[in-house]
Amino acid sequence: MSAKLEALSQNLQAQFGDTLQSLKVALGEVTIEVAAADYLSVMKTLRDEPALGFEELTDLCGVDYSTYGDGAWQGKRFATVVHLLSLANNWRLRVRVFADDDAFPAVDTITEVWTSANWFERESFDLFGIAYVGHPDLRRILTDYGFIGHPFRKDFPISGHVEMRYDPDQARVIYQPVTIEPRENTPRIVREDTYGDAAHG
């Protein structure tokens, strides 16, 4: 582990102690996990504490762990993962928080800490159905307003539930149940016997 990652890990441990559910260093990055109840206060401290100094949020996304590890995952299903950057200290941090309720996943919004979280949280809400409590304008951002469900959840069908088409009789776009028959395509590969043989080009 580099001296910089070691210093960041020590600063995080000193600042948060038992509030951290886990702290891992892997592939040159530090990842911490916090409880949903501590999420907002931890994020404010990460921004405001000079020893940490994460003034920039670079990414926020939702994750559905229901099929993680080929379905061997045990634990809460939905998480929000945030990537932070400290320009002053020149280090990065990943923060993960799991929603307590799988049926209605929700965590606090961090738009009051970093305004750049606004559209990221809307995207996570739209695609994964994670609600961000206190968000000033939590509505869909990528799917249309009549869309049903959250398409990045692992149990959402690949073909969707409804399809949209233009109806010339009604002179408008209509929604109807999906008419696509599910099928499995198996690619066929045809190669010459000499494929990959340097002697035959």
At a glance:
The chain has 201 residues and is an alpha/beta fold.
Q: Can you walk through the features of this model?
A:
- The chain has 201 residues and is of the alpha/beta class.
- The chain has a single domain (3-154), classed as NADH:ubiquinone oxidoreductase Nqo5 subunit (Beta Polymerase, domain 2), CATH 3.30.460.
- It has four helices and nine strands.
- A five-stranded mixed sheet has the order 1-2-5-4-3. A two-stranded parallel ribbon has the order 6-7.
- A hairpin with a 2-residue loop joins strand 1 (20-26) and strand 2 (29-34).
- The longest helix has 14 residues, at 3-16.
- The termini are far apart.
- The mean pLDDT is 89.
What's the arrangement of secondary structure elements?
Blueprint: H1 3-16, E1 20-26, E2 29-34, H2 39-48, E3 56-64, H3 68-71, E4 78-86, E5 91-98, E6 106-108, H4 117-128, E7 131-133, E8 162-167, E9 172-177
Parallel strand pairs: 2-5, 6-7
Antiparallel strand pairs: 1-2, 3-4, 4-5, 8-9
Return residue spans where pLDDT drops below 50 for at least 5 consecutive residues: none
Shape: extended
CATH topology: Beta Polymerase, domain 2
N- to C-terminal distance: 47 Å
CATH architecture: 2-Layer Sandwich
Helix tally equals: 4
The H/E string reads HEEHEHEEEHEEE
The radius of gyration over CA amounts to 23 Å
What structural class do the secondary elements suggest? alpha/beta
Largest sheet, spatial ordering of strands: 1-2-5-4-3
Helix fraction by DSSP (H/I, runs of at least 4): 10-25%
Number of domains: 1
Give the amount of beta strand, in percent.
25-35%
What is the CATH superfamily?
A: NADH:ubiquinone oxidoreductase Nqo5 subunit
